[in-house]
Amino acid sequence: MRLHIVTIFPEMFPAPLGAGIVGRAQEAGLAAVHVHDLRDFAHDRRRTTDDSPFGGGPGMVMRPEPLYEAVESLQLPEGSPVVALTPQGAPFRQADAERLAAEPVVTLLCGRYDGVDERVVAGLATERLSIGDYVLTGGELAAMVVVDAVVRLLPGALGHAEEAIADDSFTSGLLQYPQYTRPADYRGMSVPEVLLSGDHAAIDRWRRNQALRRTLELRPDLLAQATLSDEDRKELRRLGWSEN
Ligand code: 9D3
């Protein structure tokens, strides 16, 4: 898969995308991330990409011409997604990561300043995404989040841990159960007995109940969408859950 990123801060990208699973996926040829400097498409000697808003008011707006010309230079295949990262976007979810991971080419436009000329959204971007309800200084970190979430889903990217995808919290719909490793006792904190028992049915039941307990406590909103068995519902009710 090819990923294009259009930004006025290309220097932000190499470190986060060069390390770990995303770095290895690039070395293995599974993903190619191309970062494009929007200023290369500016029309003036100062390499300006913003201007003041029509109608007045504070702040600056990204001009449409450099963005349009940068994206046109990529010669994207017909129908290829062009994602504008903006605070006005739909919340980025695991389902979006899965959808984008199935595309041969994905383009991410990083907003800066106080916003982007609406004609970019109307005629160039195919969708808008936000990574959450907090204010960032621009779309670059959001683009890195999207690349990270998408690239790890590419077949072969996780190597041995590929089964872990089915186990992902936001794939199964529950938060993950608590994990432990050696030592069995650390500073007086011991590993739950059941995990040392070798009774795999008991371990599975314990993990499932812990995942339910944790989700109820920290993300009760997720329970409405999760796939729950009658057994799960019984355990949740025991913990004080009331549906709806
Ligand atoms: C004046 C209103 N603000 C919009 C909520 C202005 C504004 C704030 C922050 C405009 C741009 C930004 C920069 N943020 C992003 O470009 C951004 C973002 C974010 O701030 N939060 C979560 N996801 C994203 S994706 C891009």
Quick recap of the structure?
With 244 residues, this protein is α/β, with parallel strands linked by helices. It has helices spanning 14-18, 20-27, 64-73, 94-101, 118-123, 140-151, 164-167, 169-172, 200-218, 220-223, 230-238; strands at 2-7, 32-37, 50-51, 61-62, 82-91, 105-110, 127-130, 185-186, 189-190.
Characterization of this structure:
The protein has 244 residues and is an alpha/beta fold. The chain folds into 2 domains: 2-151, Alpha/beta knot (3-Layer(aba) Sandwich); 169-238, Trp Operon Repressor, Chain A. The chain is built from 11 helices and 9 strands. The chain has helices at 14-18, 20-27, 64-73, 94-101, 118-123, 140-151, 164-167, 169-172, 200-218, 220-223, 230-238, and strands spanning 2-7, 32-37, 50-51, 61-62, 82-91, 105-110, 127-130, 185-186, 189-190. The chain has a 5-stranded parallel sheet, with helices on both faces. Strands 3-4 form a two-stranded antiparallel sheet. Helix 4 crosses helix 6. The protein starts with a strand and ends in a 6-residue tail after the last helix. The model has no long low-confidence stretch (mean pLDDT 96). The structure holds ligand 9D3.
